[in-house]
Amino acid sequence: MGDYTRLATLIGSHEELALFRRFAFLNAKNLLYMQSELVHLEGELANIALEDDRSGDDDKALFQGSLFDLKESAGTEKGAAPAHSGKRANAAITSSQDNALLQYSQIRKFEKPLNKDLKLLQEWLDRPEGGDFFLRGREAEIWENEKDLIALSDRQAKKDSITRFISDTVIPWYHHRWGHRFKNTATSGEDWNGLWHYEEASFVAVANAISTILSSLLPTTSILVLYFVKSSTARVAVTMLFTTLFSLTLATVARAKKTEAFAATTA
Predict the structure, then answer these.
(1) What count of other Cβ atoms lies within 10 Å of the Cβ of residue 215?
(2) pLDDT for 13-50, tens place per residue?
């Protein structure tokens, strides 16, 4: 029987399954409400300031230039209490909106989940030996709203193209063909009921080895090819071709910045 304890343990052990709702609609609506409240409060404070200026009272005329005089007269007959309380409310609401804006900005920076990770989590929730459909009602729809989901893990962004190809294409193909015959489903002593786990460090090492081989082969291969090319025009074309391949390799495999790729190809 599945429950939130088993689901939390699964997500805690597999960071790629840490997928949550961002509640973009509710966050945006909350910001709009706070913004509207501040607009009205801003107008009220402007009206109070205008009334103080037109009152003909020398003491009230000081309120807009001295917070001390405003606070000191809050409990007197000068009637500064509305302005004082309005300023305090303005400060509180403005601070709340600023915090909400910053939080919403941070939430929007999270990447969307990978399709394979989302499907894996959905399948686990449906498996009799996994989640066993323990979610009911609206809770069962949480991971169905793909557009509103975020992934807390940034592991995909840190991978180069070769590592992604190995993890997203080669490993699933290998597992489907042979890996499921030899791989144990247990991970760190915990049985995840059919979930197969491959250590990322192993194929990261393979990707690094491939990157190292490519970095040494491209320059030397270009020299070898140029040795056999006699035509000057063909030599220029070969040089352009290998330079393009080199820059593409830097951008995709080494994930070099534009300035770094430009400097390396012009060197």
Answers:
(1) 14
(2) 888 899 999 999 999 999 999 999 888 888 887 887 77
Give the torsion sign (CA, 196, 202, 204, 210).
negative
CB 101 within 8 A of CB 3: no
Q: How far is CA 141 from CA 19, 50, 72, 88, 224, in A?
A: 13, 53, 55, 41, 59
Neighbours of 266 (CB within 10 A): 8
Cβ–Cβ < 8 Å for 126, 118: no
Please answer whether residues 143 and 22 qualify as being in contact, where contact means their C-beta atoms are separated by less than 8 angstroms: no
Query: What percent of the chain shows pLDDT beyond 90?
Result: 22
At 111, is the secondary structure helix, strand, or coil?
A: strand
Amino acid at 54: R
- What is d(CA 247, CA 174) in angstroms, rounded to the nearest whole number? 30
DSSP 14: -
Task: State which H helix or E strand residue 186 sits in.
Answer: strand 186-187
Name the maximum alpha-carbon separation found in the chain.
101
Treating both helix axes as pointing N-terminal to C-terminal, what angle do 24-54 and 81-108 enclose, rounded to 10 degrees? Answer: 150
Q: What contacts 24+ positions apart, CB below 8 Å, involve 138-144?
A: 142/21, 143/19, 143/118
Six token digits for residue 210: 């491939």
Model pLDDT for residues 124-167, shown as the tens digit of each residue: 999 888 888 999 999 999 999 999 999 998 766 666 677 777 77
Pairing of strands 149-151, 190-191: unpaired
Cα 40 from Cα 120, distance rounded (Å): 48
Q: Is 184 helix (H, G, I), strand (E, B) or coil?
A: coil
